[in-house]
Structure formats: C-alpha cells, structure tokens
Design brief:
The complex is a heterodimer of chains A (258) and B (270). Chain A is mainly alpha-helical. Chain A is built from nine helices and no strands. The longest helix of chain A has 39 residues. Chain A is elongated. Helices cover 43% and strands 24% of the residues of chain B. In chain B, the strands form two sheets. In chain B, strands 6-7-8-3-9-10 form a six-stranded mixed beta sheet, sandwiched between helices. Chain B has a four-stranded antiparallel beta sheet with strand order 2-1-4-5. Chain B starts with a helix and ends in a 10-residue tail after the last helix. Classes of the chains: A mainly alpha (258), B alpha/beta (270). Chains A and B meet through helix 5 of A and helix 3, strand 6 and helix 4 of B.
Chain lengths: 258, 270
C-alpha cells in the first residue's frame, strides 16, 4: 500500500515536472523559431474566429438566464432595479471567464489535442524533428501565446453579449426599465472587477491550451490504448483535465484577488 | 590510402545498441556508408531496421554506440553536432509523414521556412523547383490526401531534397506497394540520387530491387549486421543467414512443391 502510494506520488510529481518542461520548451522554442507571427495569426483564427459562434450563443443564453433568475429573486425584495448590477457582476467576476474558457476548451482545446495526437500517430511530429524544426516551437508555442491574448478577448465578448442577453430578458420581457438596467451595470462594475476578469481569462487560456497540447502531443505515451483510441483517450483526458483546472484555478485566483 | 578511405566515409556507425525494456533490438550494430553511394540495409520484418535508421537520424536515442557523421562524433550529446547533422540530412518516412493540412507546395516549403533565412520568394522558387524536378509542378495546390500513393512518395522526396541534404534516409520506401510500384520507387531513388548527388541509406526487405539499385548491401538480423558487401558479394555469399534471406522465394517454391506432393510440411520449415 505504502509502495503503491509512493509510486503514484512519484508519477504525479514527475507528470507535473514533465508538463512544466513541455510548456517551457514550447515558449522558448517558439520565441527562437522563424515566421512566428504567421503561426500566431493562424492560432488567433483557430481560437478566435472559429469559436465566435459558440461564445456568442452561450454568452447570450447565460445573460438571458441570469436576467430571468435575477429578476424573480430581486423582485421579491423590491430591488429589481439592481438587476443590471447582479447580471454584470456575475458575468464579469465569475461566469464569463469560466464559461468562455470551458467553451473554448470544448472547441479549440479538443481540436488541438486531437490534431496533435493524429500528427503524433502519423509521424508528422517526428518528421518535423528530423527536419531540424522544433515541434514544440512550431506546433505548440504559437497556440499558447495566442491563447493568452484570445481568451481575454473572447471573455470580453462573452460579457458584452451576456449583458445584452440580461437586458433582453430583464427589460424587454420582464419590464425593468432599460435605463435603470444599464445605469446599474455602469455603477456596479469597477476596474478591479475587469482586471480580475482578464487575469482569470489569461490564466485559463494558458493553462487549458497547455494541458490540451500536452495530452495531444504525448498521445503515444497513452498506457491504456494505442492508435486512434490513444488519440480519443488523450483528447478526452485533455478536455476533462482542462475543465477541472479551470474550476480549481478560478477558486485560487478568486481567493487571492477578492 | 587509409586516409582517403576514411575521408570517403560520410557515416560511420559503431556498436549501436538499443533496448526496449528487456527486448534487445540492436546489439552493437556497425556500418560504414560511403559518400555518394546508395547503401541498403536488408532484413526481415522486426529485425530492427527502422529503429536502426531512427537511431541514425537522431529520432530515437540509442543506449550505446558511436555515430560519426563526416568524421564528427554526434551521438549521445553534443547538441551543436546534432543540429549540424539534422541540417545536412533528410528522412523519408515509410508512411511519408506529410502534413495533411498543408498543400503540396507548403509541405515542400516547410523545412526551408523553418530552418533558413531565405526570403519568401526564394523559398517559393526553390520549392517549385523541387516539385518540378519530381514532376509534381501541377500538383502544388493539392493536399496530400488528394494525391495517389506514388505521388505522395514523390512529394515526400521533394520535401526531403529541397534543403539539398548530403544524406537521405529511406525507411521502407516500398512497404505495402505492388511490384511495379516497388520498381518505380527504387528507380526514382536511383535517378534522383544521381541527379542531386546525395548519399542514400535505405532500409527495406525487398531483396531483388535493393540488389539492383544499391552500391552496398548489409543484412541486419537479430540486432546485428550479419553481412556487409556489394550486391554481387551478397548474391554469391554462402553464409546461411544470407542464403536463407536471399533464397526465400526459392524456399517458398520448394515448400509449396512439397505440400503439393502431399508431404507433411509446417509453414516455416523451409
């Protein structure tokens, strides 16, 4: 039992070490690699443009639901004028960074893990190494750099459409005055809230894309499966681990920033 | 004389050893590859040919042994020598390892874009030239998935030669191909080896084609080089391991004849 526990502990610690080395190598090699900007732009497109629909849809519905729930709770206390404050603070401080990150993991992160897993299986990653091209710098680094920028932008968009969704359900459907709603938003959100939102989004972007890239890149190390199943297993692990890390990191960051 | 022979060797391998757990794949392999030659390492499936080639190409790290490229020791350390080695070598994979999300032209341009400081126009011209030399100039905008198996092989070769390497490794270039295509691939390697002047090191189990297309032949079995010499020496060799491998088709004929005669022969007895 003790031996098993020790072995598992060593495995987890060496796993963290391996992940840290992987991420470090990705950044270091990316900075040294050629034509980096072009690949960062490509990553912007993958994580930005391709994920816009899901951010817009989920952001709108989150705002609609917040507006609806918030209205009925606040209305009980005769405070429905504070609906804008409730929707905006909920979105800016918690819901937008977390939900946007989860949506981006579901779309861009899973795609990244699967793509790298297939490239590993078909020896494309080894081919890069034989050409003298750093696979970390070429395939991973640009995606991590892009994630640190794209996640905050997507989160900001999520907040914007969420506020609009909240206004739609609160003002248009339930009769809260539109001016009251938007002035409550303006009064409630302060710069520390926005800073917290962007810090969270950037950290989530870095962590989730690193985890997804790590699992896809190392699909060949999967113990339980080989070939296509290893790609599927590594993609699943990437999404599950990233989602857990988003929630755990959210708690840690919030406890430091609040 | 000895000095000129030494200078003539582009790649020298000594005592190369590789184990996966308890399984010894390479047990002290030694091989010399002459500059400008086509050398082939033959061996049955599972003999460790691909592992040997990947150790040489610095993809798999050997457990022991020395690899000298152009007289310079490069294995097991010395990142500068390894980087120099990679710059001067190319690798053609068994399954081609083409980037399926890039077009043929982008595939060929990739090593130039990432390893040289050439301007974009020069990269494009050199990539188009490589495609033209491989008679692929009309397929530059096609994706690998839209090309036939033979075209993919040529595209992979175009990518391998675009950096003008001195040494090209070919890992089972004819695996899974029919006899006509096998001949075509060996003819292609011989043609472009003469055209571009690179040194070719091929691993394969196609004896007949290898003997015709190669200058030197080695036989890898049980993790060791059992024979090294010219194709003529290979054909004339009386070593049992060489005979067993070389005359496998004849042995199959004998086995089938015995089965037809009604003799109780177990497959593999030959």
């Amino acid at each position: 039992m003790v031996k098993w526990l020790g072995r598992q502990t060593l495995r987890v610690v060496s796993g963290f070490g391996d992940f840290a080395l992987f991420t470090g190598a990705a950044f270091r090699s990316a900075v040294q690699s050629k034509r980096l900007v072009r690949r960062i732009v490509r990553a912007f497109y993958e994580q930005g443009a391709l994920c816009l629909p899901v951010i817009l849809i989920v952001g709108t519905f989150t705002g609609l639901v917040l507006g609806l729930q918030g209205y009925y709770v606040l209305n009980r206390f005769g405070s429905d004028g504070l609906l804008g404050a409730l929707v905006s603070l909920s979105l800016v401080r918690e819901m937008a960074p977390v939900l946007a990150a989860l949506m981006l993991v579901g779309q861009a992160g899973s795609a990244l893990a699967a793509e790298l897993g297939i490239q590993r299986n078909s020896e494309q990653i080894v081919a890069l190494e034989t050409m003298g091209v750093s696979s970390h710098g070429y395939l991973v680094g640009p995606r991590l750099i892009a994630a640190i920028v794209v996640f905050p932008l997507q989160t900001a968009l999520f907040v914007a459409v969420g506020l609009w969704g909240g206004s739609l359900s609160g003002s248009l459907l339930l009769g809260v005055d539109s001016g009251v709603y938007w002035s409550a938003v303006e009064r409630a959100v302060e710069s520390p809230d926005v800073r917290e939102c962007f810090i969270k989004a950037a950290v989530f972007g870095f962590l989730t894309m690193s985890i997804c890239a790590y699992h896809g890149f190392n699909a060949h190390r999967c113990r339980s499966a080989t070939g296509a199943r290893a790609v599927s297993a590594s993609t699943t692990r990437a999404v599950v681990h990233s989602s857990i890390v988003v929630l755990a990191a959210d708690y840690v960051i919030t406890s430091f920033l609040v | 004389m000895a000095a000129s022979t030494q200078a003539d060797l582009l790649l020298q391998v000594e005592g190369l050893t590789k184990c996966f757990g308890d399984h010894v794949v390479l047990a002290g392999v030694g091989l010399n590859v002459r500059r400008g030659s086509v050398s082939t390492v033959l061996g049955p499936s599972g003999a460790g040919k691909s592992v040997f080639l990947k150790c040489l190409a610095d993809v798999v790290r050997p457990d022991a042994g020395e690899i000298r490229f152009d007289g310079r020791l490069m294995a097991l350390g010395d990142p500068v020598a390894r980087a120099e080695f990679r710059r001067r070598c190319s690798f053609l994979f068994q399954n081609n390892a083409l980037f399926d999300s890039l077009t043929a032209l982008e595939n060929v341009a990739l090593p130039l874009e990432q390893t040289t400081d050439l301007p974009n126009r020069a990269i494009r011209e050199r990539s188009l030239e490589a495609l033209r030399q491989l008679e692929m100039e009309n397929y530059g905008e096609h994706y690998p998935g839209q090309l036939s198996g033979g075209m993919q092989k040529r595209l992979a070769l175009a990518r391998a030669i675009v950096t003008r390497p001195e040494l090209v490794f070919f890992d089972e270039p004819t695996a899974g191909l029919d006899p006509l295509r096998r001949n075509a691939v060996f003819a292609m390697i011989a043609k472009y080896q003469r055209q571009f002047g690179f040194t070719a090191l091929i691993v394969t189990h196609d004896v007949v084609e290898a003997l015709v297309a190669s200058d030197r032949v080695a036989l890898l079995e049980h993790g060791r080089i059992c024979f090294e010499g010219t194709p003529a020496e290979f054909s004339a060799s009386t070593l049992p391991v060489v005979c067993g491998f070389r005359d496998s088709a004849e042995a199959l004929g004998n086995t089938l004849a015995a089965i037809r005669r009604g003799e109780d022969i177990q497959p593999g007895d030959s």
